[in-house]
Amino acid sequence: xxxxxxxPSLGEMKxxxxxxxxxxxxxxxxxxxxxxxxxEVEGRYDFRGSKCEIQWDKxxxxxxxxDEYKMNAMKDILQSKMHRxxxxxxxxxxxxxxxxxxxxxxxxxxxxxxxxxxxxxxINKLIKDSKLKVQAQIVDDKVRVTSKSIDELQxxxxxxxxxxxxxxxxxxxxxx
Length: 176
Fold this sequence. Notes:
It contains four helices and nine strands; from the N terminus they run βαββαβββαββαβ. By secondary structure, the protein is α+β, with helices and mostly antiparallel strands. The longest helix is centred in the first third of the chain and has 17 residues, at about 25-45. The chain is elongated. The protein has helices at about 25-45, 70-85, 115-130, 150-160; strands at about 20, 55, 60-65, 90-95, 100, 105-110, 135-140, 140-145, 170-175. β5 and β6 (about 105-110) form a beta hairpin. α1 packs across α2. Strands 2, 3, 4, 5 and 6 form a five-stranded antiparallel β-sheet that branches.
């Protein structure tokens, strides 16, 4: 009789330990920081009677104000509220102030989520050059790192933490 080769069932397969390197911002915390900033702007004496507001549509923030002083003050208030909530300012991309009509100015602030392809390539290169026994691959907007050894994964985390990539990085989805 012929011998049959059977593939291992899911229960028998050994999954290698892995983790993902991501750049994400907690949008609930962003929302909370914006609500606090709005309350402070409404309550401040120097904003009384002026047309200043902070708009938020879950993708970008718009600051609308009468003059550059008020725009900078709103920006400072927003940044301080976000910083207090543990949000990294590198996740915010400030665009130039522009005229919004009716003597108002607008500044758009984009929320940056995910790792850019170039930065992902740099992270991947750093890990490969380190000679650690890990495999790194770019998956969508994150970098997945796998290894047989959890110690190697932890060494990889330390290596990546020690390097500045101009974006906030988090380590998640740890599987062992």
